[in-house]
Design goal:
Elements lengths: L1 H31 L1 E4 L8 E11 L10 E3 H13 L5 E11 L1 H12 L5 E9 L3 H6 L3 E4 L4 E4 L12 H20 L5 H8 L11 E4 H6 L5 E2 L2 H22 L5
């Protein structure tokens, strides 16, 4: 009888712990679209990061807008780098773009991580979403997704002098240079796509569908969730093998 009571207590405590863990995970998904994936057969611990809607920077977006706040993403990426139990990062993107400084900050942090990273563009990876998509070690795009490449624009007060134009040019160069250095396209080709006047009705630039983004060298491969996770596991295993060669005593 005592054994049964002890078993029941342990079983109840275990269930309460699992429920609490599930609630915490659901809260994390609800608040920031982030969750840890660790139920795979290889037991790889992968952190999921979603970048959706508008990338919010120094100014708050309208309350009706779906946003990704960079002040949430940057600390999260720092935690991912610091946590040695996390083996990889999967980034899901469906973004219209947003603040240039915030987007580039996120892209630079993803690119500087020591763990394997894979990005997957779903729906759209527009504007400053392009640097974030290519910042990963390997990138995927679903066939129906689109990516818009267009020149930098500014909101608010605009002073009509040559210095303003040069400043805009420098900002644009930072973006195209980052994309070119993390993908298989060139800065010259990106500028050509940015300045195309034949595609968009109310804008200058180019809209690329999934396969076209791969053909242009922006994205590595057309694929979905299955392919993205498989590639990430492959990169994680390859990293472990490299570490074993350096230190054969590692588990």
């Amino acid at each position: 009888m005592e054994k049964n009571d002890s078993y029941n207590i342990e079983n109840t405590e275990q269930k309460e712990f699992e429920l609490k863990e599930t609630d915490q995970q659901n809260d994390q998904i609800r608040e920031m679209g982030q969750v840890t994936l660790d139920k795979n057969p290889e037991k790889h611990r992968v952190e999921l990061l979603t970048i959706i809607g508008e990338v919010e920077g120094h100014e708050s977006a309208p309350s009706q807008s779906k946003t990704t706040k960079y002040e949430h993403v940057l600390p999260k990426l720092a935690m991912v780098e610091d946590d040695k139990e996390i083996e990889g990062l999967l980034i899901l993107l469906n973004t219209v773009g947003g603040d240039v400084e915030a987007g580039l900050a996120i892209a630079e942090m993803i690119a500087s991580l020591s763990i394997p990273t894979v990005s997957l563009v779903l729906g759209g990876g527009h504007s400053i979403g392009v640097p974030m998509a290519v910042s990963a070690d390997y990138s995927f795009v679903v066939p129906s997704a689109t990516m818009v490449i267009h020149p930098v624009r500014s909101s608010g007060m605009f002073i009509g002098v040559a210095q303003t134009y040069r400043n805009m040019e420098k900002i644009q160069d930072r973006i195209t240079n980052f994309i070119a250095s993390h993908s298989h396209t060139t800065q010259k080709r990106l500028e050509e796509l940015m300045l195309d006047t034949t595609q968009l009705v109310k804008d200058v630039g180019t809209m690329l569908e999934g396969k076209e983004a791969v053909e242009e060298g922006l994205i590595d491969e057309v694929g979905g969730m299955k392919e993205a996770l498989a590639k990430l596991y492959e990169l994680i295993d390859a990293r472990k093998e490299r570490k074993k060669k350096v230190n054969p005593f590692l588990n």
